[in-house]
Amino acid sequence: MTIGEFVFVKDPSYSIKHIPYKDEWNLVIENVKLEHAGKYECQISTKEDLTRHVVLNVKNIFISGPQYVEKGHPIRLTCNVNGTLRPPDDIDWFQKGVKLKNSPLDGVYIRKYVRKDSMTLTSQLKISESDVTDTGTYICRSSKNKITTHYLSVLN
Running DSSP on this structure, what letter comes out for residue 87? Predict the structure, then answer.
């Protein structure tokens, strides 16, 4: 895929980051997709060839967001779900076993959008003003029954 700083695959998501003062070379993969999963090999040519293997596993559903939020500050969580042939149809959010719904009067906003180039459905959950009762496990479930969780604590 690469030799030195030269990347010879046509996939623009691959690049090399060289940190000279650390003598460090890193393979960077932007906008990781399911097809990026697999076994990668790093070789260093010296008198004795050095080889390292790294296995990249790509989750097809994940939540990103903070683990801690100060009371009164907004909560922002994002759930991404990948499909293989097409993006999932929908994403639902749950907290304490209750399905969350878009409710501007209650300060709960759920926004969804599709990226067809990566077959990804993204849902952003925003709670305008957090309270200690918002502490707990948040669940993201796709229409394809893929589920992931994220624990968040609201600090008083």
Answer: -
